[in-house]
Amino acid sequence: MTEKTEHAELQIAGMRCASCSARLEKSLNELPDVTAVVNIATEKASLTYDPAKTDLEAILETVRHTGFDAHPARDFAAEKADRMAMLQHERRVFLVSLLLTLPLVGEMVLMFAGVHLMMPLWAQWLLATPVQFWAGARFYTGAWAALRSGGSNMDVLVALGTSAAYFMSVAVWLLGLDQPVYFEASATLITLVLMGKLLEAGAKGKASAALEALINLQPKIAHTERNGQLLDVSAGSLRPEDIYIVRPGESVPVDGIVLEGESSIDEAMLTGESLPQLKQAGTKVYAATLNQQGVLRCRALAVGSQTQLAAIIRLVEQAQGSKAAIQRLADKISAVFVPTVLGIAALTFTGWWVYNGDFSLALINAVSVLVIACPCALGLATPTAVVVATGRAAHAGILAKDAAALERAHQLDILVLDKTGTLTEGKPAVTDVAPAAGIPKETLLHTVTALAQHSTHPLARALLLHAGEQAIIEVGDLHEHTGQGLTATVDGATCLLGSPAFAKAQNIVLDEPTLTAMQTDGRSVIVLARDNTVLGYIALADRLRASSREAVVKLRGMGIRVVMLSGDNDATARAIAQQAGVDEYLAEVLPQDKARHVTSFKTGGKVVGMVGDGINDAPALAAADVSFAMKSGSDIALEAADITLMRNDLMSVADAISLSRATLRKIRQNLFFAFAYNVLGIPLAMLGMLNPVVAGAAMAMSSVSVVSNALLLKRWKPDSEKNN
After folding, report:
1. CATH no. of 6-71
2. Range 239-302 has CATH code 2.70.150.10
């Protein structure tokens, strides 16, 4: 791939089963510099391509040549409108097919009841023909498209099976043969398959309900100030810097910052956090969150596709369109499934004909094999579970980048936690200032301000907040030593602000008793020195998150080994680890060494996860098998992470792992059902123990049962909801 690659989402029409999606994916990936993932559950193809080698029109032509139709994906509402229109059409076709089939089925039911009332063969033909060639036209067109492109799919099986029953019945009628007819079997099979597809479509629609709910959260109207007047305008027309008003009971139209007013806002739909958040001047508000009381006057920061809600919707769509690794097994089987079934059907026909010489019985048993064996359930087993799980995760404030990340999370053996901002709140505050003998406190704070004003480190911000000086102090020869501290020239003297270990490395003699006393209770100590002489010590404390200890207990209860990484000295790191209930920790770990430590835990094939929130966590997050980033973290950390936690709460990590395990259980159940259905059904059909109508009903219900089982994931709840 070149650096000029583009991404596209295509909406695909005409896919019937896993064989269809696998065949289309293979065709697209054979194009020059095209990488494609086709998802049958969402009916989308996600593509990365080089327009210089393969343009979008060539990709669309390949889709059409493979037997499907496609167009660039539009917004959710437009695609839903198309799906609903298609669903209405298919419902009408099914109803007509059902009305034509009922008399044929009624005749069969009466026969089982002992009433032999035979409908004339011409009447049976008259009822069955529209079902076969009008209602069943989709199977013929789908089968032809598949065969023309060198593949096969469910349509081939249905078209062959029903055509065999129909044309044999026509031959018996026209030639006056002394054989039973199976017009009712062919018509009933088509009607049952159509019914199954309708039920499947309805269930798949429910699977994407969470995404639809997110999209529907987007407010339509905003109250904006323009030319001294308050006007009601479309929320989509707001631009950055626009001023808008949010009244009690209304949703925030776009992301912004509060200028005036105070209120509580319910952000549960965005973060999964059940408690309302206090908003006042200077705090941020997000689109679609609900203002509970008070009027807020805000300035727009991010609008349209740039809002937090839009980003979440994109992530959910991306995850739902991705493919879990376990799906590869189903794809490999689907690629050879239909040809194998055709071979088994031919073997069944030959075996029965040789065995008893009854052509009619041999053909009907072969038809049963064709009909019972459908790869639909196999193809839907994984993607439907992923669609439901990612939607449920988003509702809980857990955003998985793709299905593979959600899948890997259940395998975690070790979870590495960064201390600051993960176990702790990431908001350190100064607790003690201890100037050296003869050094005025003002001198110490003045020098601290000079150095800290040039750093973005959380400890530097805490020092500045405590010092309270606003004027910019000129410094020279400034150097920031990552994870250790700062050195610079202030008022002609060489100054150092950093960790005790950094000071010792510069041959600065420290007052160990004072240092040890200040490092109690998990406090971090910063040393300030001038010309290699200590000016004083400053202790800072970062409070443990309220849920950290409970989350660690939960993670350990799940069989996961928890390890804390910290850049603090051993005493501080040990104190925080004890407060959080973490048995293993590594202290004085420099940012550049975090990734190395994460990698070292992978020895022996261990699956390692990493939780962090800062810029210096990004390499470690990238090195982990599964990475989690707190939403409070930097954009770089969020970009590097596989799973983003909208709630700044370690319990969300436990929730993500819990959901991953629940999802994999559902996928395995679905795959078991799909395999068991065929393993049991095909031999029974080969032995002549399944009537084609019963086989058709079982085939139709198999896909519905798999999707319905995946929908049970909607019952999963994070611990925060269980306790409410």
Report:
1. 3.30.70.100
2. yes
Query: Which of these, 74, 662, 707, 39, lies nearest to 396 by C-alpha position?
Result: 662
Distant-in-sequence, close-in-space partners of 115: CB < 8 Å, separation ≥ 6: none
3-state SS record for 86-110: HHHHHHHHHHHHHHHHHHHHHHHHH
Locate tokens 């010092």: which residue? 467
pLDDT digits (tens, 9 = 90+) for 242-256: 999 999 888 899 999
Q: Report which DSSP code applies to 250.
A: P
DSSP 249: T
Residue ranges per domain, the chain?
6-71, 239-302, 429-541
563 pLDDT band, cuts 50/70/90, is: very high
Tokens standing for residue 79: 């695609």
Architecture of the structural domain at 429-541: 3-Layer(aba) Sandwich (3.40)
Nearest to 484 by CA among 535, 527, 529, 423: 527
Query: Would the pLDDT of 469 be above 80?
Result: no
Residue 489, beta-bridge partner list? 476, 494
Q: Which of 50, 242, 255, 418 is catalytic?
A: 418
Please state, in angstroms and as integers, the Cα–Cα distance from residue 503 to each residue in 530, 541, 594, 718, following that order: 11, 20, 22, 45
Model's pTM, two decimal places? 0.69
> Residue 367, Cβ neighbours under 10 Å: how many?
30
418: annotated active-site residue: yes
Residues in the chain: 724
Phi-psi region of 603 (alpha: psi -120 to 50; beta: other; left: phi over 0): beta
Place of tokens 């689109």: 287
